[in-house]
Design brief:
About 20% of the residues have low confidence. This protein has a single domain, classed as Ribonuclease H-like superfamily/Ribonuclease H (Nucleotidyltransferase, domain 5). The radius of gyration is 18 Å and the shape is elongated. The termini are close together. It contains nine helices and nine strands. The longest helix is centred in the last third of the chain and has 26 residues. The chain is an alpha/beta fold and about 250 residues long. The strands form three sheets. The chain has a five-stranded mixed beta sheet, with helices on both faces.
Length: about 250
């Protein structure tokens, strides 16, 4: 048996060790994208792991809207991460949630994620972390900040984002040129030869994706999109995905 832990973190930077985790969302699914659990979402204030790192959290005054500022110079990419947190209203909602609603330690968040896995997966079931960009980013955060949850998942990850945006030569009449596996960071990256807009249009997913795309750069919305993506991928390339996940001998 196999399951997917759809996962997304919203953070203040792209440097895994130097960022503050502001929001997390996750859900457990079958490999075909069928949800076993509801999407869980939490606001967090999990500080940087790097020595000398600066904890960066949203702030707001009566005369100023919500903002997030670094107390030292940072890269343009990290600044963009902060800007997105403000533009998506993550900063406002984080502040409005109140002190008691904010998870402040990785161990607490790890326990919540692991509880979801244990409630919806068999004890011996293999669980892959999945989602858009997880192989190089979210998986690394899970490993470094949420060790108890990380110990329950497989060391490989399924990156649905790469599968939706990567072209592998010209498309065939079926819309798929190639499906293959590459080693990306700490995980496996599934790459399909058809861009997402063609895949979802062909298989009736376009309207559902657009409805789920109204809240960009928010953890729960990104998890919802990843689930929709996984359903489309399974419909298109379920056979190759079964092989990649070691499921050839299991009943369909």
């Amino acid at each position: 048996m196999r399951a997917l832990l759809m996962l997304d973190f919203e953070t203040t930077a792209l440097d895994v060790t130097g960022l503050t985790v502001l929001e997390a969302a996750w859900a457990v699914c079958d490999v075909n994208g069928t949800q076993r659990s509801e999407i869980q979402q939490r606001f967090t204030a999990i500080p940087p792991q790097a020595k000398g790192g600066f904890a960066v959290i949203p702030e707001r005054t009566e005369s100023q809207p919500a903002k997030i500022v670094w107390t030292q110079r940072t890269s343009s990419a990290n600044q963009r991460a902060l800007d997105m947190a403000v533009e998506s209203r993550l900063a406002d909602e984080w502040i409005d949630a109140g002190e008691d609603a904010i998870i402040k330690t990785g161990n607490e968040l790890s326990r919540l994620i692991r509880d979801t896995i244990e409630q919806h997966c068999a004890p011996d079931e293999i669980v892959y972390v999945a989602g858009s960009g997880v192989a190089r980013f979210d998986y690394s955060i899970l490993k470094s900040r949420c060790p108890a949850a990380h110990h329950r998942v497989h060391y490989r990850a399924v990156d649905t984002g790469v599968a939706c945006t990567t072209l592998c030569g010209e498309n065939t009449g079926e819309g798929i040129r190639a499906v293959y596996l590459t080693k990306g960071g700490s995980g496996l990256v599934l790459v399909a030869g058809s861009p997402y807009f063609q895949m979802d249009r062909t298989h009736g997913q376009a309207q559902e994706w657009v409805r789920g795309n109204t809240d960009p750069h928010r953890a729960a919305a990104d998890v919802a999109r990843a689930i929709i993506t996984q359903r489309a991928l399974w419909e298109l390339v379920g056979g190759p995905m079964r092989k990649l996940l070691g499921m050839e001998s299991e009943p369909s």
